[in-house]
Amino acid sequence: MLNLDKLFTNYNIHQFNEELITWFNREKRDLPWRHAKNPYRVWVSEVMLQQTRVDTVIPYYNRFMERFPTIETLAAAETDEVVKYWEGLGYYSRIRNLHEAVKEVASVYDGVVPEEKERFEKLKGVGPYTTGAVLSIAYNQPEPAVDGNVMRVMSRQFGIYDDIALPKTRKIFEQVVRRLMDPAHASDFNEGVMELGATVCTPKNPMCSLCPVQETCYAFAHNVQDELPVKTKKGAARVEMYDALWIEKKGKVAYVQRPDKGLLAGMWQYPLTERGTGEQVNGTYLGQVKHVFSHIVWYIDLYRVDTLPTDNVVWLDASERETKTVSVAQQKLERLAGGERETI
DNA sequence: AAAGCGGGGGT
DNA sequence: ACCCCAGCTTT
């Protein structure tokens, strides 16, 4: 454990806050969740932004808020429709948890996002980061909101070499933030550090010449920006091979629903079998799709076949298919099948 | 503490 | 090819 007192010896806390917040208020990007700011909008944006880039989130956020502008509209909606608005965004447990949490806020807290930390942090899908982000950004409470940006900025600012891949390291940065943050400007502080990490203090080639807190930065002073933060890397993703079946009869296509737990829970797809586990596919080979997850790589061979592989299929016409939620891997397969259909 | 969980963009 | 992103839950 590192010595906080030592870290802050001769460190100008006031200068950091002053420069950061002045910079943030001058340079901050115009983002949808910074308009008509309220706790619900902040919360939705923070969940969408988990492990997901701002540019990816923006169109999803706008569509989502247009359809579910309030706690009440989201709480009243069917899960299937809500999940459909998340299609393509990934980490689908986020939206199932958010929907359940919002329903709880509607029923238990009368539709008001709880301001008490011990209540908010117990909601589904709300972890340490989201707790700090919502309480600080929406309610201006002096809580740390430590994400990858914050760990990168702080590791450089203070020369902290702890491995940010380890869960316990986040707590160190929370202590640093608690000590550094001007409690009167919690919202601007947290958003400002993240904005700095996203736009200036980037993982590769940080733009130190543009940095408002260059003067107080350990990494800049010692020219070690490129070795911070320290992060151990994970092993390579495993490879899995599948056969997918495109079966179309009288304008309807066979689909199966994935199990309600695990990878892509509950989502719809063509019948899919792990290669080599069943009998040889008897059909026309249409091509291969590659799909990369963070921990798995899928190679899927697509076949057009005439026979039913399993009795668990559901036959969907085009409009029925539209309402189902599918993974991007499935979208790639359908594109392949669609291109093939035109040649028939 | 480690693994599971999506997808995309930057270098 | 590798990195990593406004992380949380389960094991």
UniProtKB/TrEMBL annotation:
Gene3D superfamilies in the record, alphabetically?
A: Helix-hairpin-Helix base-excision DNA repair enzymes (C-terminal) (1.10.1670.10), Hypothetical protein, domain 2 (1.10.340.30), Nucleoside Triphosphate Pyrophosphohydrolase (3.90.79.10)
What keyword terms does UniProt attach to this protein? 4Fe-4S, DNA damage, DNA repair, Glycosidase, Hydrolase, Iron, Iron-sulfur, Metal-binding
Please give the catalytic activity noted in the UniProt record. Hydrolyzes free adenine bases from 7,8-dihydro-8-oxoguanine:adenine mismatched double-stranded DNA, leaving an apurinic site
Q: How is the cofactor bound?
A: Binds 1 [4Fe-4S] cluster.
Parts forming coiled coils: none
Q: Which SMART domains match?
A: ENDO3c
Note one Pfam family from the annotation: NUDIX_4
Where is each HhH-GPD domain found?
48-199
EC number(s) stated in the UniProt entry for this protein: 3.2.2.31
> What cofactor does its activity depend on?
[4Fe-4S] cluster
- Family classification: Belongs to the Nth/MutY family.
Described purpose of this protein according to its UniProt entry: Adenine glycosylase active on G-A mispairs.
The protein in question is named Adenine DNA glycosylase
The organism of origin for this protein = Exiguobacterium marinum
